[in-house]
């Protein structure tokens, strides 16, 4: 046998040669021109200013971007913030971070020295453009207290340990979303999903950047293979390995001795992954039998397929093993690889059996049909010199699945639009627009037209970064407008393109009162998504006219839209057919462009906050600074509990301490004009906290003027409802502003008295509280209410907004009278819904809230603020007490997404009947993962997926819950695809079951139910890459998983295929959580979730 030391050197020397673990070498062309270009991209000699110094950890940052250690400073010169320096810096690729190798002082910043001597603080806000703002900020800075005079930009470096969520061999992402490049590793190691890395992260103005990384822990071990399948195996029952870890193509088998290098990793139930594996050269005394699929002279019945078997029935399959060799053949054993699977051997080989030449033996195998879906196992025939391995398959079906068969084969019809639909030479007769309020002070929106080169690049699938280079660059002040304008254009292009997919040919309109009605197929599904104000252009077919007619949408119904054209067209129309092209109402996009420009010109300190300066409190509650620098580096702690300077009468007496602290921080408003964030994980009451803060600002700051912005009408109505229920705001003091596009019938009755009359918005200035969606709030820019009118801007569910949408609210900041933005949201839950894959790729899906919380000032910093939940409480309060879910449901999202900080306050004293439900695999643990290996299908021309096996399983669980006593209002069903939702409703109708709420994750965000059933649908990895590209399904976005599982209060049921889901880090961890806690049932698990496999035989 070989020794550990003899193999260790070989493993180390041959590490780079491992398949799948090779770092690509840079290839440089031979011409001098190409060499010089590469040098320019990867090296720079430049002049800059020191923007950050960390004396404790001995590093600094130049121009917010170039990292340097103190050891790189020439002659150990002492540098300070503001010093001018010359430096040599390099990076491995153009997308890597810069690291300075030599830094030399050129000019000392005298201003900085004087300011430190006088203990004065310098504010970056002095760069504001107008003279008035210059004097205002200078005056403020001279009298205010900075939290860190030595580090005004708050750049810092921190060592973290995190799991890899994805890695493609060149670059990857950690669990919190920060990207890293494989070549930045300190050792030659290519991580995979689940590996645990120790990374050095630079937090700066532009966000987080991994400077270097290494595996958390590496060991070299000896052991033996205790389980082995086609592509993976287990060593010593505790270490996972994959076939590509082998240094050579060798036959691996259970019991084989191996030597391996292993790294810390989360692979199912296993804590280690072998990334390099070699077998013993001395193991020749124990000859193992190879696995083969066939051998000459031995005939075995094939295929071994039970085909389809109805659920609850058993079937058997006869297998013939025939000897066609010229000698006797000994069959020593016949057995299934999975001893606990649904297959078992009836009549067969109980002991070694000799098969003479030209003779055969019969073996009978049986199948237990206990779980719906596809099942597979391997039947092993052990002969003297080999083991023949054959796959046995079965599909267990429920009779109900026949109802769900595709109505027609899938065929995605790519409609060819008639040439005249895109003919710009037609004269368009305008229609009558929907009623819109017109203000006498109204300002026109800028046109913000889509640049033709960008449109052409999208249509021709060209590289967009060539047309707009700022797309791939880090977001900064200098490219803020250009980048977001381009992203908005990309989103608009996709929306317009999606609408054009549904152009109609030779359509006929019907008269409905004063309107003409047009039937639109797919409208109920939201394909296309038409709203009031969009247009339908009618073009006479076959180019028989040079005129086209514009019809404006006034009402949207289930399968039709009601249009108004010009009066002459209404009078003359007599059933003629027209080709129809849908066009987007661009008003919302134009508002977003306007607000991006406005914020970039007036609110740099809010969108790129770089320094915290404490102001005098607006309401003195005695909350002292959390910490203060004294004598350079020492820190003195202060109390965070209030003194008796002011006493608040809480409107909601059930608030916990964290919620109260957030309200008091907002009232004091000491971080103004920087935004304040209420970070609210699921069920922690962030909207309750926001409403309490609004009521106290209204009561304690008489001169305050408040606007509350939300992403949707339902969220705005909820805030309005909570404020109205407090009975503290007079009807003359608050207005609920609605868009002209909103139907009066959709407004709740109790809110209608507070709603703004659509006649005009000119009287809004008489109200102290305005509640609106962000989109509708954008209309206030046209009446000049964006200039220093509001003092407090509250944004609820801020994580669901695109940053340009948040800019609408941020633009209301009253900078002259020290206003503040307060955002409530959760960056770990679903962000904005986008249509464009380009906009998604280049960053439009990152909300303003999420981006802000990744900057150095707002980022989590456990070392500095451990006792405050990891965040600076002057800027962020993380609510930690969740009242929604059972502790066993809440534990996984708390550990996976919220740093294990969520404290469960679920009322356990109530009668929790579902905890003792008979269907639970583990009584008392109200979580079920039901594994189903179904088939995903599509039908007709719908691209949406459905899985009949999962539909049936979901319906069965719903039926049992109704039988247990739950009502439809107690249950929710979440499915990521519209076709799955449709099929679930179809089966419930066939079973005469009452509908509960069924919808996508997005439809459930902000809601809760006693029991939640989740259908994941996906059962093949063939189209997973498409889901990732278009942000569909559960595997494309861990936030979708987080939202789905946190909707449940007492019971969570997940139906899905563990073999597909476990390829994603977050789902892998959830399946592992269920297996460990004994709440898994259904189909066979992947090998990585089965411990001590050989011992179970």
TrEMBL record:
Q: One GO CC annotation, please?
A: cytoplasmic ribonucleoprotein granule
Question: What are the residue boundaries of the Helicase MOV-10 helical domain, all occurrences included?
Answer: 460-501
- Where does it primarily localize? cytoplasm
- Which terms are listed as keywords in the entry? ATP-binding, Cytoplasm, Helicase, Hydrolase, Nucleotide-binding, RNA-binding, RNA-mediated gene silencing
Residues in DNA2/NAM7 helicase helicase domain copies: 654-741, 762-836
The reply to whether RNA-binding figures as a keyword in the UniProt entry is yes
Chain ranges of the Helicase MOV-10-like beta-barrel domain: 502-582
Q: Which Gene3D superfamilies match?
A: P-loop containing nucleotide triphosphate hydrolases
Gene Ontology MF annotations? ATP binding; hydrolase activity; RNA binding; RNA helicase activity
Q: What is this protein called?
A: RNA helicase
Q: Which gene encodes it?
A: MOV10L1
């Amino acid at each position: 046998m070989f020794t550990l030391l003899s193999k260790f050197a070989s493993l180390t020397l041959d590490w780079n040669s491992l398949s799948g673990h090779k770092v690509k070498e840079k290839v440089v062309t031979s011409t001098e021109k190409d060499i010089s270009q590469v040098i320019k991209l990867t090296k720079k000699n430049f002049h800059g200013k020191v923007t950050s110094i960390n004396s404790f950890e001995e590093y600094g940052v130049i121009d917010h971007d170039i990292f340097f250690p103190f050891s790189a400073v020439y002659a150990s010169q002492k540098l300070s913030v503001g010093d001018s320096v010359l430096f040599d810096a390099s990076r491995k690729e153009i997308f890597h971070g810069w690291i300075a190798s030599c830094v030399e002082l050129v000019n000392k910043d005298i201003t900085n020295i004087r300011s430190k001597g006088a203990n004065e603080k310098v504010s970056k806000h002095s760069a504001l453009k107008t003279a008035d703002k210059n004097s205002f900020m200078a005056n403020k800075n001279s009298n205010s207290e900075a939290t860190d005079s030595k580090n005004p930009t708050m750049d810092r470096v921190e060592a973290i340990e995190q799991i890899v969520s994805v890695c493609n061999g060149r670059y990857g992402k950690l669990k919190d979303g920060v990207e890293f490049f494989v070549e930045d590793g300190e050792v030659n190691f290519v991580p995979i999903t689940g590996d645990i890395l120790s990374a050095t992260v630079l937090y700066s103005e532009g966000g987080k950047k991994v400077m270097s990384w290494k595996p958390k822990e590496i060991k070299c071990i000896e052991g033996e293979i205790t389980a082995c399948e086609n592509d993976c195996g287990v060593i010593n029952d505790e270490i996972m390995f994959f076939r590509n870890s082998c240094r050579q193509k060798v036959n691996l088998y259970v019991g084989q001795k191996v030597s391996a290098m292993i790294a810390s990793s989360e692979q199912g139930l296993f804590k280690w992954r072998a990334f390099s594996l070699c077998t013993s050269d001395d193991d020749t005394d124990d000859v193992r039998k190879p696995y083969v699929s066939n051998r000459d002279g031995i005939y075995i019945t094939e295929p071994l397929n039970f085909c389809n078997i109805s659920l609850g029935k058993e079937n058997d399959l006869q297998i013939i093993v025939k000897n066609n060799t010229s000698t006797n053949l000994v069959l020593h054993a016949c057995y299934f690889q999975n001893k606990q699977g649904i297959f078992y051997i009836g009549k067969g080989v109980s002991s070694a059996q000799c098969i003479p030449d030209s003779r055969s033996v019969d073996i009978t195998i049986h199948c237990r049909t206990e779980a719906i879906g596809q099942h597979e196992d391997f039947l092993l025939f052990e002969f003297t010199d080999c083991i023949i391995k054959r796959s046995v398959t079965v599909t267990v079906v429920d009779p109900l699945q026949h109802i769900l068969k595709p109505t027609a084969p899938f065929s995605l019809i790519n409609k060819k639009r008639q040439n005249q639909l895109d003919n710009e030479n037609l004269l368009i007769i305008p229609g009558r627009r929907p009623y819109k309020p017109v203000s006498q002070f109204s300002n026109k929106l800028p046109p913000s037209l889509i640049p033709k080169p960008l449109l052409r690049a999208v249509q021709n699938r060209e590289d967009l970064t060539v047309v707009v280079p700022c797309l791939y660059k880090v977001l900064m002040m200098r490219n803020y407008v250009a980048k977001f304008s381009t992203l908005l254009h990309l989103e608009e292009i996709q929306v317009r393109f999606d609408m054009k997919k549904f152009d109609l040919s030779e359509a006929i309109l019907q008269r409905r009162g004063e309107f003409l009605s047009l039937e639109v197929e797919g409208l109920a599904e939201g394909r296309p998504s038409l709203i009031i104000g969009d247009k339908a252009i009618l073009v006479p077919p076959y180019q028989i006219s040079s005129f086209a007619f514009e019809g404006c949408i006034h009402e949207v119904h289930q399968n039709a839209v009601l249009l108004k054209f010009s009066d002459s067209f209404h009078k003359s129309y007599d059933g003629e057919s027209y080709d129809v092209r849908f066009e987007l109402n661009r008003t919302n996009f134009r508002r977003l462009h306007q607000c991006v420009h406005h914020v970039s010109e007036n609110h740099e300190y809010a969108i790129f906050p770089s320094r915290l300066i404490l102001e005098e409190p607006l309401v003195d509650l005695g909350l002292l600074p959390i910490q203060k620098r004294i004598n350079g580096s020492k820190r003195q702690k202060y109390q965070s509990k209030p003194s008796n300077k002011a006493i608040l009468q809480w409107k909601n007496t059930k608030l916990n301490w964290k919620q109260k602290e957030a309200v008091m921080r907002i009232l004091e408003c000491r971080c103004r004009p920087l935004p304040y964030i209420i970070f609210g994980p699921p069920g922690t009451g962030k909207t309750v906290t926001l409403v309490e803060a609004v009521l106290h600002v209204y009561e304690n700051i008489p001169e305050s003027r408040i606007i509350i912005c939300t992403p949707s009408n339902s969220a705005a109505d909820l805030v309005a409802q909570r404020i109205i229920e407090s009975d503290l705001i007079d009807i003359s003091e608050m207005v609920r502003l609605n868009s002209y596009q909103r139907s009066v019938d959709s407004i709740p009755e109790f809110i209608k008295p507070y709603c703004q009359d659509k006649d005009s918005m000119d009287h809004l200035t008489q109200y102290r509280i305005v509640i609106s969606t962000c989109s509708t709030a954008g209309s206030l820019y046209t009446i000049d209410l964006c200039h220093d009118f509001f003092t407090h801007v509250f944004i609820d569910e801020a994580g669901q907004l695109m940053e340009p949408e948040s800019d609408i609210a941020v633009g209301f900041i009253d900078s002259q009278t020290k206003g503040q933005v307060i955002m409530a949201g959760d960056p770990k839950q679903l962000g904005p819904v986008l249509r464009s894959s380009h906009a998604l790729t280049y960053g439009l899906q990152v909300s303003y809230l999420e981006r802000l919380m990744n900057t150095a000032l707002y980022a989590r910093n456990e070392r500095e603020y451990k006792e405050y939940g990891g965040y600076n409480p002057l800027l962020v309060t993380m609510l930690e007490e969740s009242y929604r879910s059972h502790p066993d449901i809440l534990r996984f999202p708390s550990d996976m997404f919220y740093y294990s900080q969520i404290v469960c306050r679920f009322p356990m004293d109530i009668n929790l009947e579902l905890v003792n439900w008979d269907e639970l695999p583990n009584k008392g643990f109200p979580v079920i993962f039901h594994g189903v290996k179904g088939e995903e299908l599509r039908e007709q021309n719908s691209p949406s997926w459905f899985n009949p096996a999962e539909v049936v399983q979901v319906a069965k669980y719903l039926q049992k819950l109704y039988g247990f006593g739950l009502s439809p209002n107690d249950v929710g069903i979440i499915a990521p695809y519209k076709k799955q939702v449709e099929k679930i409703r179809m089966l419930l109708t066939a079973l005469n079951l009452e509908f509960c709420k069924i919808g996508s994750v997005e439809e459930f965000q902000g809601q809760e139910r006693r029991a939640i059933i989740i259908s994941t649908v996906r059962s093949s990895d063939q189209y997973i890459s498409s889901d990732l590209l278009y942000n569909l399904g559960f595997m494309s976005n861990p936030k979708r998983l987080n939202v789905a599982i946190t909707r449940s209060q007492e019971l969570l049921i997940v139906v899905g295929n563990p073999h597909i889901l476990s390829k994603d880090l977050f789902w892998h961890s959830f399946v592992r959580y269920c297996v460990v806690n004994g709440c898994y049932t259904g189909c066979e698990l992947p090998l990585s979730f089965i411990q001590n496999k050989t011992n179970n035989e």
